Amino acid sequence: MTEIPRKAVQRTAKLASLPLGVAGRVVGGWGKRLTGRAADEVNAEVTAKTAEQVFAVLGQLKGGAMKFGQALSVFEAAVPDELAAPYREALTKLQTAAPPMPARTTHRVLAEQLGASWTKRFMEFDDDPAASASIGQVHRAVWHDGRDVAVKVQYPGADEALRADLKQLLRFSRLLQAIMPGTDVRPLLEELRDRYLEELDYRDEAANQRTFAKAFENDDHVLVPRVVASSPKVMVTEWTSGVGLSTIIREGSVEDRDLAGQRLAEFHFSAPSRSGLLHADPHPGNFMLGDDGRLRVIDFGAVARLPDGLPKTLGLMTRLALDGRSADLVELLRTENFIREGMSLHGEDVLGYLAPFVEPLRTESFHFTRRWLQSQAERVGDLRSPDSQTGRSLNLPPQYLLIHRVTLGATGILCQLDAHVNAREIVARWQPGFDD
């Protein structure tokens, strides 16, 4: 394979193969049971093969399909273990790996973007990619001045493929609706589409990364690699290394899990105030923990522009919910259009819905676990529960969609890490409105 499959009909057929493949395996499983094989053995085989297909199809398609898989790899922390476990490993692979393109294709893109004499810009260039992701792959190289660098090369056809996928993935709206009840899903998917399309021009990503690198220059807790060169489809940055969060999630020590979680929470809440930007692609493949204890952050293609930092309204809401001030909370929510027009809500019901979400701020240190996140998902997702009914009466204004998604994604990573985090201290320092 030299390029991403571009034609919409071709990519749609591959996406459609996922549910069809699952159905076929289920039917096949019933057949094996009739021949005497144990149900547990058959079910394990079915789920394992389904997980393999998810990785194979989404990984080959790359583009928006792979990005959707990366998003699922974060949200699986909210899904009961018996459902998520078979897919966890396959989805985790999507955070850092996908089938690479041949060296001749990589060279062609480099020549188109950096000029026919592109090889003179490097002292060394490794044709084997160090990492592959949704719309590009990364090669390790040595710049002409001797610096170790990472060279990100966009897959040919990534732009067409991404647009085709994002159109098709609107069909997955029911899944996102289940994850985020009370949210109007279509605007959220449209926001995702806009952010992902921004990633197609690496010059924009380079500008974002330069802003982050300057904001966190010489920081004791976060390292953002400097940009060396950029063009629309190739970007060169200083090389950085560390243990990926996906590895720490899988096999890290308690100390590494807690440190990674603490650094990630600090970065998420402090970046808007320090840089005016919010890193909007939170999945473990974009973060590493270095030997010096600093969090390495990469991939700045998707950002939210927040020149005044995180919205003060969010801090006020959090504080009111934490203090149990139900009447003031409802008044603020109604003023800021978080309550759907014409809806009548009791203050205690709203407080009951929101209070568990601010539980991490009630203690000096909070233990983020999959079980905690699963309990929240079950609580708001059960159509019979009062909290679910309250949630469906609430609204998420468009200007908060991206912040909500990124915060939920970061929280999912903290729960995957099983980390103890001083969340209250971080929020009090960096969230405007919380201590007003």
Helical residue percent? 40-55%
User: For the terminal residues, how far apart are their CA atoms?
Assistant: 57 Å
CATH architecture of the domain at 103-159 and 200-238: 2-Layer Sandwich
Largest sheet: 6 strands, antiparallel
* Large-scale geometry: globular
User: Measured on Cα atoms, how large is the radius of gyration?
Assistant: 22 Å
In DSSP terms, counting alpha (H) and pi (I) runs of 4 or more, how many helices?
Answer: 18
- Output mean pLDDT: 79
CATH uppermost class of the domain at 103-159 and 200-238 = Alpha Beta
Reported by name, the CATH topology of the domain at 103-159 and 200-238 is Phosphorylase Kinase, domain 1
Count of strand segments: 14
CATH homologous group name of the domain at 103-159 and 200-238: Phosphorylase Kinase, domain 1
Beta strand %:
5-15%
- Low-confidence residue ranges: 6-48, 50-66, 178-183
SSE class: alpha+beta
Describe the structure.
The chain is α+β, with helices and mostly antiparallel strands. Among the domains are: 8-93, no CATH class; 103-159 and 200-238, Phosphorylase Kinase, domain 1 (2-Layer Sandwich), CATH 3.30.200.20; 166-196, no CATH class. The chain is 55% helix and 11% strand. The protein contains 18 helices and 14 strands. Strands 1, 2, 3, 4, 6 and 7 form a six-stranded antiparallel sheet that branches. A four-stranded mixed sheet has the order 5-11-10-8. The protein has a two-stranded antiparallel ribbon with strand order 9-12. α1 packs across α6 (158-168), α6 packs antiparallel against α8 and α11 (254-275) packs antiparallel against α17 (401-417). The radius of gyration is 22 Å and the shape is globular. 40% of the residues are buried. The model is unreliable at 6-48, 50-66 and 178-183 (pLDDT under 50). It comes from Lentzea aerocolonigenes (Lechevalieria aerocolonigenes). Residues 124-436 form the Protein kinase domain. Pfam families: ABC1.
